[in-house]
Amino acid sequence: MKPRAEGEEKAAAPAACVWGMLLACAGQSPMVSSTTLRTQGRWKISSNSSGSKVGSCRRYITLSLYSVLFSIHMLSGAKAAAHIIAQLVSPKQPLSRAIPRLSSHPFSRFNLNLVKRAMSASAAAKRLEGKTIVITGASSGIGKSCAFEFARTSPKNLKLILTARRIDTLKEVAAEIQKEVGDGVKVLPVQLDVSKPEEVRQFVPKLPEEFRDIHVLVNNAGLVKGLARAPEIAEEDMNTMFNTNVTGLINMTQAILPIFKSRRKEEGGAGDVINVGSIAGREPYAGGSIYCATKAAVRSFSDSLRKETVDSRIRVIEIDPGQVETEFSVVRFYGDAEKAKKVYEGVEPLTPDDIAEVVVFAASRRENVVIADTLVFPSHQVSLLPTSF
Asked: Is 334 a catalytic residue?
């Protein structure tokens, strides 16, 4: 084979560095060491498979840095990425000092904010890694989107327990998640009607042992029935809304809270309770008195629970969406899809994914950060709009 000229080897080296980073992300475990310095004008990449020492100044670049450098590669080219590896990463220069220099580096034609976002995404994945997350109402809408968002954010060593009444739909969701992110996320579909206290009481005892160490509870299950006004509100509708939106949420929280309190007892426990509320819990409207009352109850319960657990590492988080296009209106109008569709005519509502991103963001903050109360609107909304219903 014809030997490669020195100039050709130099030209190929930056691309080789980047491909080394990509292989590392894929689990091949190569590394780029600080001895990626020029040796007689050549670049060197070492692999830890050899076990050899490449000088005392070797420094391993972590997966987070691989992600950052890949962003540099995409925006500024392979040469920039490789040059930054060689010039900025050394045992004498920590990454915290190296990164600020990137924006003034002669090869860096990229947006530093993108690099910071890449590092932030990696931090979120790390914080969620190894956790078990329960999501109620996960067969559709916000709950389903939350399941996907958690899986995409932390696709390695994560467990998801998805609950809803429709077990066949849950199994389809579980299959879709595993097809997308692989075996790093274990998904357990569980048929559960939160409005039935006995089912909730049996929820934790019936879980497989490996899924019982729950870290995050997303209380998402909820519904609305009709637009009736007093005194014409059906008793069955009242019971359905209160049993699901209020009693079901509280029962689920009480079922999971002992697990949180048993963790790190010296700190009073640890875990996240994330309650999906609604703008309706803040601004009641005509024709929604019962639904608004249930969401106001969720808000009061969340505020009280936060105060009751303030001396612990248990975080109580409430996220109140404005107008979101889900099956919500279809259920409200007793399955009348055409009538439900008219609710969103002429406006651009939020999507379930929008709310899921907020849920996952809140769950993946540093432990001392509590996103206690969040109100999320689409751009056309400034308060509850009665005309939307």
From this structure: no
